[in-house]
Amino acid sequence: MRRSRAWSRKDTEAIIPTSSTRAVSYTVIGAISVIGVVNITMKVPLPLKKIKIQGGTTTGHYLNFIRETLDIMDRYPEMRGSYLIMDNAPIHSSSEVNHMVENRIKDYKCVYLPPYSPELNPIEQFWAIVKHKVKRNQLMESETLTQRITEACNDVPLSRLVNLTQHSKNHFQNCLNKVPI
C-alpha cells in the first residue's frame, strides 16, 4: 500500500522513490460450446521491459486462435452451422475475422454482442469459474500458472457449460423482449 501523503521542507517536493513490483499478466483466449471446451490458447507473458504495451493481444493473435478453433470445430459434424459469439472488442470485430469465419465451408456465422453485455456471453461466466478455480489454492512449487489455468478450464463439467449457454440464451430472449435485466 502506498502512502498518499508525505512531508518535506518548505519549497521542496515531497518525493520518495519507491520500489514497485509489476504483476505479470497472462492473456487467455477461449472457445466453449455445449459439447465441451473447444479451444483454449494462452499468451505467455514476455519478460518485463520498460516500454509501452509491447506484446499485447492483436488481431493477428486472434486470427490464429480463430483458425485453430475452426479447424477443431471442422472435425465435429454436430458443430456445423454453429454461431461464434463474440463481444465488441476491437480484435473480434475485424473484417478479417468475419471473412475467415463466414467463408468457411461449414457454414459458421459470427454474432457480435452489444457493448457491456457480459450476461449474454457464456464465456464470461466460464472465465469467472476458471478464475475461482485458479485462485482457490496457493500455487504449488511443482506447478506453473499455465498448468493451473489449463486444468481449471478442463475441470469445468459439461453440464455446467450447458447451463452457462442456457443462462445466456434466456437473457438474450429477455433482451429481445425488452425485459430489463
TrEMBL record:
Entries under InterPro entries matching the protein: RNaseH_sf (IPR036397), Tc1-like_DDE_dom (IPR038717)
TM spans (from-to): 23-42
Protein name, entry field: Tc1-like transposase DDE domain-containing protein
Keyword Cell cycle applies: no
One Pfam family from the record: DDE_3
Key word Transmembrane present: yes
Protein origin, superkingdom: Eukaryota
Keywords: Membrane, Transmembrane, Transmembrane helix
Molecular function in Gene Ontology: nucleic acid binding
Residues covered by the Tc1-like transposase DDE domain: 2-143
